[in-house]
Task: inverse folding
């Protein structure tokens, strides 16, 4: 008896039938494997598409959530900014009011001090100015020196409280006295000659 393709098996038919059966089984197995591989690739491709679609959906959701969160944060920041601006404007307004109040207080104090000091200045100008002439006193160096010393002393004590116009008036009085003294000195010098 012929031994078949495999030892211990019985020969069922001729060798070409067995080979054909093996080839047929191999082809079926190969076709099954190829089908399984193609099916696996198709499943993988579908799964990948599904994952990509889920990823795209999740990405869209996250972008939308981020945009909402960003919008919310910007709105909160704008509200805080407006609140801070309002607080700053209020504080600035308060500071301006305080500065104006302090300025008014300072001006009031200066005016009070001027009211106290102007009579002293007027007294000096009167004594060495018109009253000196009314009394018939000669305007000489002694007169000018006394007048200037009185003005300097008064200016040292009260000059900070005089207005610019008042200081110019004092200077003009001093200059007029100096001129009058010079005229008197020249007249006296001519009279002696």
Result:
């Amino acid at each position: 008896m012929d031994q078949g393709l495999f030892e211990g098996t019985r020969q069922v038919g001729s060798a070409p039938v067995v080979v054909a059966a093996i080839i047929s089984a191999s082809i079926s197995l190969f076709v099954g494997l190829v089908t399984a591989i193609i099916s696996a690739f198709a499943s993988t491709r579908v799964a990948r598409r599904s994952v990509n679609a889920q990823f795209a959906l999740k990405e869209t959701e996250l972008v939308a959530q981020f945009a909402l969160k960003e919008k919310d944060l910007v709105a909160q920041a704008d509200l805080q900014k407006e609140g801070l601006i309002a607080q700053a404007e209020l504080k600035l307004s308060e500071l301006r009011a305080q500065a104006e109040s302090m300025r008014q207080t300072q001006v009031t104090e200066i005016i009070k001090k001027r009211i106290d000091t102007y009579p002293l200045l007027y007294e000096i100008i009167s004594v060495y100015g018109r009253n000196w002439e009314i009394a018939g006193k000669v305007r000489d160096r002694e007169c000018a020196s006394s007048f200037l010393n009185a003005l300097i002393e008064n200016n040292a004590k009260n000059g900070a409280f005089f207005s610019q116009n008042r200081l110019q008036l004092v200077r003009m009085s001093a200059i007029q006295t100096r001129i009058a003294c010079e005229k008197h000195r020249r007249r006296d010098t001519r009279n002696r000659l």
Remarks:
- The first helix runs from residue 15 to 128.
- The radius of gyration is 59 Å.
